[in-house]
Design brief:
Layout: H1 5-10, H2 29-60, H3 68-80, H4 83-115, H5 117-131, H6 139-146, H7 150-174, H8 178-186, H9 191-226, H10 234-243, H11 247-275
Helix pairs in contact: 3-11, 4-5, 4-7, 4-9, 4-10, 6-7, 7-9, 8-9, 9-11, 10-11
Length: 282
């Protein structure tokens, strides 16, 4: 079969030669990210519904557990008479105060320990010493020294958040790639510029992870702190419900703490995404 010059000039393939299939356009990273986010949200919803379903089945199987509708009804009752709102505000105020103060002190201390050898040598033994002692173990001593007001509760929460965040910040600083620091020095950057432009951005993911861990420790410490010398709060209400075998109220406290902790953790995760957009993620 003869191939004309017109066909060749047109760019048409010779007869009998298969035309290669058109390559599919590459998927955009933004589209992949959106698809993955939608999948995660769907899986989260399935997980929540499945967990509530398992809880309901366990309650109906004979275990001494309240059903989800019973817990929801008790929550509405406690909210209507103002008890739940008062407890949530009391617990949330203590957690936020202790957590924010602990994080604000932990970040500069962690930077000092990671950047200056003298500060590391002076502070690290004490940080490691108190890190091995649960803050709740200090609660009886704190109550004796500070009384039974709000100060001892906030202090133990502060201590729990501080110890979690300071170690993470310190590890972030000492883990900065030396190549980046040496490259900045070669380019003429001073210590202050290197610290602000290299060390702080590289340490930010570690700081935010430490804050998330500290937030969980703060909530765990709060419940135990409210079991002693408190007149309001979710932990206090759960202890009172235990005395009267009011399991529904105990579940209301558990669910409220879980929801509040989850919302605060998601806010920190959102801040981490915004502040570390340069970091590769799966």
């Amino acid at each position: 079969m003869t191939v004309s010059s017109t066909d060749l000039n047109r760019g048409d393939p010779p007869p009998g030669v298969a035309t290669p299939a058109a390559e599919a356009p590459p998927r955009r990273p933004g589209r992949r990210r959106t698809s993955r986010r939608s999948m995660l949200r769907l899986l989260n919803a399935v997980s929540i519904v499945g967990g509530i379903g398992i809880w309901w089945l366990l309650a109906l199987s004979g275990l001494q557990l309240p059903t989800p509708p019973e817990v929801a009804s008790k929550a509405v009752e406690l909210w209507s008479n103002g008890t739940l709102g008062e407890d949530v505000l009391a617990s949330l105020g203590r957690v936020l105060t202790g957590f924010l103060l602990g994080s604000l002190v932990a970040v500069p201390v962690g930077f000092l320990m990671g950047w200056y050898t003298v500060a590391r040598g002076l502070l690290e033994p004490w940080i490691q010493f108190f890190r091995t002692i649960p803050p709740l173990a200090l609660l009886p001593l704190v109550l004796v020294l500070m009384g039974i007001g709000e100060l001892p509760k906030v202090f133990v929460i502060f201590l729990a958040a501080f110890l979690a965040c300071v170690i993470s910040t310190y590890q972030g600083v000492v883990g900065v790639d030396r190549t980046l620091i040496n490259a900045a020095r070669v380019l003429g950057a001073k210590d202050g510029t290197i610290f602000l432009k290299v060390v702080v951005p590289a340490s930010t993911p570690f700081i935010l992870v430490g804050m998330r861990v500290g937030l969980g420790s703060a909530w765990a410490t709060l419940v135990a702190a409210e079991l002693l010398a408190a007149q309001a709060g979710l932990g206090y209400r759960m202890q009172q419900a235990q005395l009267y075998y009011d399991i529904a109220t105990i579940f209301v406290g558990i669910v409220a703490i879980g929801i509040l902790g989850l919302v605060m953790d998601r806010l920190l995760l959102l801040a981490e995404t915004r502040l570390t957009g340069w970091q590769e993620r799966r």
